Amino acid sequence: MKKAMLRLSDGTTFEGYSFGADVSVSGEVVFNTAMVGYPESLTDPSYAGQLMTLTFPLVGNYGVPELTFRSDGLATYMESERIYARAIICCEYSGKFSHWNAHESLAQWLKREGIPGITGVDTRALAMLLREHGVMMGSIEIEGCEHAEQSRYEDVNFVAQVSCKEVMRYNVGGAKKVVLVDCGVKHNIIRCLIDRGLEVVRVPWDYEFGQIDADGLFLSNGPGNPDNCMPLVHHIRNYMQTGKPIFGICMGNQLLGKAAGAAIYKLPYGHRSHNQPVRLVGENRCFITSQNHGYALDADTLPEGWMPLFENMNDGSNEGIRHVSKPWFSVQFHPEACSGPVDTEFLFDDFVKLLNQ
Amino acid sequence: MRLENINKVLVLGSGALKIGEAGEFDYSGSQALKALREEGIETVLINPNIATVQTSEGMADHIYFLPVTPEFVERLIAKERPDGILLAFGGQTALNCGVELYRRGVLEKYGVRVLGTSVETIINTEDRELFVRQLEKIGVKTIKSEAVETVEDARNAAKQLGYPVIIRAAYALGGLGSGFCDNEQELDAMVEKAFSFSPQVLVEKSLKGWKEIEFEVVRDRYDNCITVCNMENFDPLGIHTGESIVIAPSQTLTNSEYHKLRALAIRIIRHLGIVGECNVQYAFDTGSEDYRVIEVNARLSRSSALASKATGYPLAFVATKLGLGYGLFELTNSVTQSTSAFFEPALDYVVCKIPRWDLGKFRGVNRELGSSMKSVGEVMAIGRTFEDALQKGLRMIGQGMHGFAENKELHVDDLDEALKAPTDKRIFAIAQAMYEGYTVDRIHELTKIDRWFLQRLEHIIELDAELKRTDGVEHLEYDLLLRAKQLGFSDFQIARAVGLGRTMTMDQAVLRMRQVRKRMGIVPVVKQIDTLAGEFPAQTNYLYLTYSGIKNDVQYTGDHKSIIVLGSGAYRIGSSVEFDWCGVQALNTIRHNGYRSVMINFNPETVSTDYDTCDRLYFDELTFERVMDIIELENPHGVIVSTGGQIPNNLAMKLDGQQVKILGTSAKSIDNAEDRDKFSAMLDRIGVDQPEWSALTSEEDMEKFVARVGYPVLVRPSYVLSGAAMNVCSNEEQLHKFLRLAAKVSKEHPVVISKFMTNTKEVEMDAVARNGEIIAYAISEHVEYAGVHSGDATIMFPAQRLYVETVRRIKRISGQIARELNISGPFNIQYLARENEIKVIECNLRASRSFPFVSKVLKINFIDIATRVMLDLPIERPNKSLFDFDYVGVKASQFSFNRLQNADPVLGVDMASTGEVGCLGEDANSALLQSMLAVGMRIPKKKILFAIGGPKQRAHLLDTIKRLVDRGYTIYATGGTSDYLNGLGVANIRVYKNEHLDEHGRLKQPIVSNLMHNKEIELFVGIPVDTLADSVHDSYYRMRRTAVDLNIPLITNARLAEAFINAFLDVPINSLAIREWSEYK
């Protein structure tokens, strides 16, 4: 294995070995504390532009399933068509793997997709540094490879990069029709919607979806700074005129919030894990959620008519909002999981109920 | 919100440590008490296990050393009138007792509210049929199982399901009375045994080879649920989870599999309505996402203790609060102290649990592992690679192994068989197979262990080969050495692999290796277990060491304020919860006197490894290498080696050699007591008597020795071939047989032989001295004569039947020895006493097994005093009058023979008990009676069977048997015993083996085995001729074994039988007072 180094923008370096593609890259360095789910996370478009650090040390144990697609075009096991994270950083890559559904090793997959991976890094020390300092830009330099420089994470419109380029339809003829604005949607969101009998019209992030005759609107997750998505925010505001149901997840929560008039800010080091506790505001009901976000909505800036729906029990940040009278709600976490706990999948049922009202 | 009107709560403990129910319940009970006290609730604890931390002063408001049985608990409830009761913190013992109290209407009668999970729910999880029905309602798959109540039904069920099947006894702890059957014959034997433990037996389809996965789930009364941890068994289904190597978190599950099982666990806990904690065990297919739920334990368990230690999430503490009515969202994560307790820990390390077996201690025992538990303890190793955790763990179990590689070659006759039929040695058989070139696939075929684990093991062997290719330590490359350390290789393993041991002793090689390694800058770093993988700062110092890292989580200031206490490691026969108590007491004293208390220990079942017991907890190895690593980081004021039993004691000399400051008695003195020659010379010098002994290297010399001193002799080999390590030989034939079968005698392996004293009392002196002067002491007496290991003996304190002169002499000799060895700290001396003749057997310059017992009976904390001595703090000498009190403490031993298939349940010079209790009484009889009941003895109402081996023992028990007859008992007796009794006119019924024929060729009646199987025998007194019951095939062995298998109380010692029988004849059980500890004055 070639030697590799992670260099952070504050000058700190971490040494390791390259086990993926031997390409130098740079991006925003973030950490994820999940203990399973590297194939799902790597293919989650929300990781676009980021170097994903896994704090759980053993990675690669169960290999990677084959990237296959169902007849409707959705990936069978993955969350999109390719790896979106720019690199993976871990402590102890397991070169050999064992699983009945594994097709290849993580290393083989990374190499095929041209994505670097480095192992041998003290990812706990790295995570604690990011916790104290906040996320930073960083680059992976692989022995004998040219350096790569990338623009500041916040300035890039990653949503534009990862969104679909044309309108796609799923489960045509479903009981209700939903427009899904693709900011970088995870396939399991679409699976969750069509499993509930909905027809899904997936549109590019800046698409004028108001022209589509649908029963409701879904705002997907996606990477980067929501401020780069102002055209979509305007479309949402227009859609609100119809009074039809809206459901948003992750970036969708931030965009719905922005459309309502709330402010967004960047968290120091984000929430990327499978163990984030949220509480239904004003109730004794709590849920463990899967999360992956760097930005959050400032609930104090919610205008009249809106209220927080969920709250993070660790740091008090906003985890969802709803309108007091209109059928509009969104959550910051991932009820579709993949990867992570599935305890909040009932929110899709709630959305269906709204569509049926 | 807390429930109202709960001001006083009763906690049921688990009693003596036994296989399947061990120290983990001291931990969970202690946490429960802590949680209750934090709420200002008055606490009542019943637990006869006097060596536990939970029964220490200040842990509960009212402590009762009484048997945890419905009868005693009912009387206790009538007296204390608690508002609530906790049933889930004392293992199966407490749970069963609670269910019984509920069924008898006791809880309702006294208005005692069950906190946490309701009894109805407990019954739903414990009764297999109800359980399956409940899970069917929510579409959760269980293992197809038929509950039967007759052998015939069991056969039919097995036929329907198809062999192989598994048999389980309902309501039994740790898989008691369960096992696999491949055919009807095996089924018949297994089912009968299972029925002796439970009226209901379950026949299930076997899923051998599936993965075994466990989830620990928590639910509050608001229906909020979390899974705190999941675990994966290294060994596939078929081996009891207590017998498996277990990894947390799971390593071979994908996201989809993990969360499928997690979601099911939550669905189950919600449906069952558990409030608090439970675990869900799954069988999981290896070729799809198919699963079966094996069982749900609606209580704290061994797994939950492990999960608490593995994650830092205090399950028992939280479960108690939930039982009081709180929601998870109202509680704080006790590690971060800022985030919510409603969360799921994220680990950034792996832990590996490895069971510790002591099967070598038992004659005749079946070593094969299966669905019933046999291990006596466990270790938990933490690492950032699986290889590291596993190799650490294999060293921790303390059976002479150095890790997975670089061990002495294992002698296996049939390697394939050793892989296929798992025993306690299987992991080493895998290593052997890899060295012999078996592929991962082949080993997988034979063991069904997931390839991923085997690949990691192969990784170790590959690296070992690379080390071996290194020509000398000076050619060792940085990268290779670092990699070896990351994969858990010890300096010893590396030194041996690179051949350092060829030119010097291994002790020297290890030091040299350490020096080389440090010069290369390869040192471990300290990491914290923080429950959130670094996402939030931790406020606790729960630590481990790893080479997979570059940064310490702890800032060391070098203030010399740390005092390191070395823990006692894995529970094993001879060393268990009593040393945990000692360690915890030492930590308390250290903490209260302005020092930083630091613990090193790796036993997940302990209180000493609870991170809030000390200021810094290193959950790591107690090897010289690791202890030195920690000492170099901590730069301590000193190290305490005398409160953790033999493991730290053995490190004293090596640490001293590195100029480590050992607090208290010097390492040199420890060595002078441990080294047989030096100690013996010292006794001669000060004129103290000892049994004659010699270390011999040939059979010829041994014969000469015996010719001089005479039989019987005690033989202790230094190299054991099989079976027990030491034995008493009464004649030449036995001696030769023992040497031939069990022990090798040679120049390299000397055998220590000593004169064995019969009909001699054994007396224990537990004491604390300062600069050679005794400050506090306790003299106790064994009920059994010498020949029964002190750890198995029934002990009375204060001694009840010693001459005043004997006591005076023991005090004087102890004083001489303390002076001579200049003891500063705890120590224990064992004496033999016949008439007034006193001989010293051995002396340990450390706390002994009986320290908690004597401390609690006396109400003088010997460890606190000893620790103050070691810290050089002023001490108030206990007032002499304190040594004079009007009650008696009796310590009785708990045996776990019922779990150890085929093991001969006879007591001898090697220890066999797994636990103990200590009860108090106004007199010796009532204390003895309570303690015997607490270790599972039952008082017979009518029928007792006697099989007494020798004339001396028969004579000894004659009066006792006469008393029984007078009181209307029916005495059954075997041939010789019956003849003896008939000769003296004592009424008895002679019993026969099922081979004795009368003149008509019919079997003579009654047949002893039939009586036993028909439950006609309520107590079996089976005394062997001598302790070397040389044949495990003789009929007496079979009777003893049958009694154990059928759960018939068994006593194998004449003195104990006499004491027990007289006690229950003299003291009616209902007259036993329900008195708490503090009421004994």
What would your notes on this structure say?
- The complex is a heterodimer of chains A (357) and B (1081).
- By secondary structure, chain A is α/β, with parallel strands linked by helices.
- Helix content of chain A is 20%, strand content 32%.
- Chain A has a ten-stranded mixed β-sheet with strand order 10-12-11-13-14-19-18-17-15-16, with helices on both faces.
- The longest helix of chain A has 11 residues, at 123-133.
- The mean pLDDT of chain A is 97.
- By secondary structure, chain B is an alpha/beta fold.
- Helix content of chain B is 36%, strand content 19%.
- Chain B contains 35 helices and 38 strands.
- In chain B, strand 30 and strand 31 form a beta hairpin.
- At the A-B interface, helix 3, strand 15 and strand 16 of A face helix 9 and helix 16 of B.
List keywords for this structure.
A: 357 residues; alpha/beta; 8 helices; globular; B: 1081 residues; seven-stranded antiparallel beta sheet; 35 helices; 38 strands; 36% helix; 19% strand
Ends of chain B: how far apart? Answer: 40 Å
Instruction: Note poorly predicted spans of chain A.
Output: none
The structure class of chain A reads alpha/beta
Q: Which percent bin holds the helix content of chain B? A: 25-40%
Query: Average pLDDT of chain A, to the nearest integer?
Result: 97
State the assembly state of the protein chains. heterodimer
The helix tally of chain A amounts to 8
Give the strand line-up of the largest sheet of chain B.
14-13-10-11-12-15-16
